[in-house]
Amino acid sequence: MALVLNEEQQLLKDSAEGFFGEKAPVSQLRQLRDDQDDNCFSKPLWGEMAEMGFSGILVSEEHGGVDFGMVGASVVAEAMGKNLSASPFHASSIVSASIIALGGNDQQKGQMLPAIAAGEMLVTLAVDEQGLHNPEGSSLKAEASEGGYKLTGLKTFVQEGGTADKIIVLARTSGEAGDKDGLSLFVVDRRAGGLIVDQTVMTDSRGWAKMTFEGVQVDADALLGEEGGAMAALDPALDKARIVLAAEMLGMAQECLDVTVAYLKERKQFGVLIGTFQGLQHRAAELFSEIEVTRSVVLKASQMADMGGDVSWFASLAKAKACKTVELATNEAIQMHGGIGMTDEFDFGFFIKRARVVQALYGDYGYHADRFANRSGY
Amino acid sequence: MSDLDLFQKETRKWLEANCPASMRTPAKGEDDICWGGRNFVFQSEDQKVWLQRMGAKGWTVPTWPAEYGGGGLSRDEAKILASEMKRIKARSPLVSFGIWMLGPALLKFGNHEQKLEHLPKIARGEIRWCQGYSEPNAGSDLAALATKADDKGDHYILNGQKVWTSYADKADWIFCLIRTDFSVSKHNGISFILFDMETEGVEAKPIKLISGNSPFCETFFTDVKAFKTNLVGEVNNGWTIAKYLLTHERSGIGDMGTMVPLSALAREKLGTPDGQLGNQMLRHEIVEHEIDAAGFMFTLERAKDEARAGGEMGAFSSMLKYYGTELNKSRHELIVKVNGSDAFEWEGQFSNNGEIARNWLRTKGNSIEGGTTEVQLNIISKRILGLPV
Question: CA nearest A369: which of A303, A288, A297?
């Protein structure tokens, strides 16, 4: 397969860039923040995204989705990254849809996937318990109780945790924190008794939550996949999620470069355009190069994910590289803009504050560099 | 079965039958590379046979037209040939500046007679070429070159000096930039000409490098006669050809960036207790490098696929040259670190006469030759990002 977008994917890219540029530019996120909007995204926008098919981008046609695959999902995420468009796309349509498709039984798929694709049901994943991503380190406990399970413990850094209808929770049915085995996935209603959801205001002004499970009782059919076998669905679903996050970071980095280059062509100091200074030209050219390399790994990883099989090497490569590049891009964009880059009035603050959050989500650079090395045999 | 499937099947069969076993092992160093030319000493009969067989099919230059000695393959067929060769770990039968630099320029700018004269000899490895570009006062500012050409009717008389002429002492012919007009702006008085290195008045002196090797020469021209039939393109339009050729040189140099195995060497030297390299600090450096190296590999793949889909690579080759050569430098720094003090042996059997150190030192030139890293960044900023001059 050629490492380029095919015609259909190129059309999708053009339409996604047009759509988000018009319907959900950075100014929308700014407005949501200033309004202290509880949803942290625009519901009308989400409705239109559903009409465009974006909410069902990874969902099979059988379950009402458009099944555009991972290259398609990455192309859409890149456009969202460019515009910092806020929506439950990643939480519901990427992570949760992937877990359900991989690990759910027919009934769970039938109940949730069409509703996710239609944008009518929001589902999210609660995986981490501490600041650094570590699924195996989960200790939230699921004990057998009343023919079902009782969940007790804490989760943090849950995307759209305040608005999700259902939460897929990673819980320990046996073993100790640190064991890869003994982890199970449960689908829990956000309004379940004993579940306390604390919306958390984070740097990126998006919808995050911490969750306290105080003996939340669920039925046996809340179990998603095999008891003790969470990783079978979680690992590959997280890899898809990581690739799509890498695409979002690619979009952010590209936008930082584009806006910065435009600024270098209009800002004058010492009587000349600052873009004539080699000290800035070379930094821009280096950033361009890093972004191109990132573009290659994101596309490669997305294509490999569409071909199926274990893509952990590719996913960690893409996430690690994109983390580095977006960190560079956001820092350079502020520095090359000078004082104006530090003002809230200018948009770069939104980019750097979103970028670092996405860098941390589902494994930062260090997590994925280490995993890449392990998968490479060293 | 589609045409491409059939081609793949036949190619596999032909390679199985025609690629000698000893040519299915990786080249260990410079000595294993076949450069061809009048004076080339083959390392083995297998090396010679492999070149002859591939040359006869035109598969040393798979996509060149068959009438000029090429394989006449489509880009898709050439991709299949490359992957089939990779499958059996076949060595490249011929490496030459004629193939990856002069050939593409001649195909684009040369006339029919020039193509007929020179391309088949490149394809068969009969003539080895060198490049006469840089001069003592024309390095990064290449267009300042001053090798003087006096018009004598059907020929020119050349006087001047080139420097950093790769393998000028081993080459049979040179493609050379000369100044045919001193009265116009520097870019508009340059021409591109070909002549035999055995012509009277040509002298090549090797330059010893920090690696101890001498891949480059100083080349002197004293009243050298060069015929106008070998002037490529229009008179005074040589800069256009020079720039075109440099983009090929650059993507070629960038291409070499990821060749030397690093992580396998690190596993062998540092061990992998608990499945990870025994030295955590080096592991950290190596993985950071390997992430970029993998990213660069996929960027080369993407650039080739994009070129296949839509034409010339253009200024993007500057990005590949910059990134690939910087990667190659950092890769060799890591190879030195992984070997520790063993890396600094300069002579003797154990180190194959200081191979690690010499290769490491040689890479320092990667980001200078073919346009420095700084020149590539200038090109990216001006031609891709459109930043003002």
Answer: A297
Pick the CATH number of B240-384 from 3.30.470.20, 3.40.50.300, 1.20.140.10, 3.40.50.2300: 1.20.140.10
Domain that holds residue A341: 231-375
Chain centroid offset of residue B23 CA:
21
Co-location of A88 and A177 in the same domain: no
Number of structural domains (chain A) is 3
* Nearest CB neighbour to A296, from listed B286, B299, B382: B299
With respect to residue A205, please indicate whether it lies within any of the assigned structural domains: yes
pLDDT at B258: 45
pLDDT category at B253 given cuts 50, 70, 90 is: low
CATH architecture for the domain at B129-236: Beta Barrel (2.40)
Considering Cα of B372, then B373, then B375, then B376, what sign does the dihedral take? positive
Q: Delimit the domains of chain B by residue range.
A: 3-95, 129-236, 240-384
Confidence of residue B254 (pLDDT cuts 50, 70, 90): low
pLDDT per residue as tens digits for the range B71-107:
999 988 998 999 999 999 999 999 999 998 999 999 9
Find where tokens 């002492």 sit: B169
Q: How far apart are CA B161 and CA B145, in angstroms?
A: 9
pLDDT, residue B260, reads: 76
Q: Which of B283, B291, B380 sits opposite A378 (nearest CB)?
A: B283
Indicate the CATH number for domain B3-95: 1.10.540
Supply the pLDDT for residue B256.
Answer: 52
Judge: A2–B308 Cβ closer than 8 Å, yes or no: yes
Residues present in chain A in total: 378
CA distance linking residue B219 with residue A216, whole number of Å? 83
Q: Is residue A11 part of a domain?
A: yes
Question: What residues of chain B lie within 8 A of the CB of A369, using their CB?
Answer: 284, 287-288, 291
- Residue A219: which CATH number? 2.40.110.10
CA angle B336, B341, B342 (to 5 degrees): 80
Query: Where a domain ends, among A164, A192, A224?
Result: A224
**Whether the Cβ atoms of residue A130 and residue A137 lie closer than 8 Å to each other:** yes
Number of H helices, E strands in chain B: 12, 8
Question: Looking at the structure, do residues A357 and A238 belong to the same domain, yes or no?
Answer: yes
Strand-pair partners of B191: B178
Burial environment of residue A134 by CB neighbours within 10 A (0 to 12, 13 to 18, 19 or more):
middle
B155: left (phi over 0), alpha (psi -120 to 50) or beta: beta
Instruction: List alpha helices for B256-340, DSSP H.
Output: 263-270, 280-310, 316-339
Best of A296, A368, A375 to disrupt the B interface (most B CBs within 10 Å) is: A296
Quote the ipTM score. 0.95
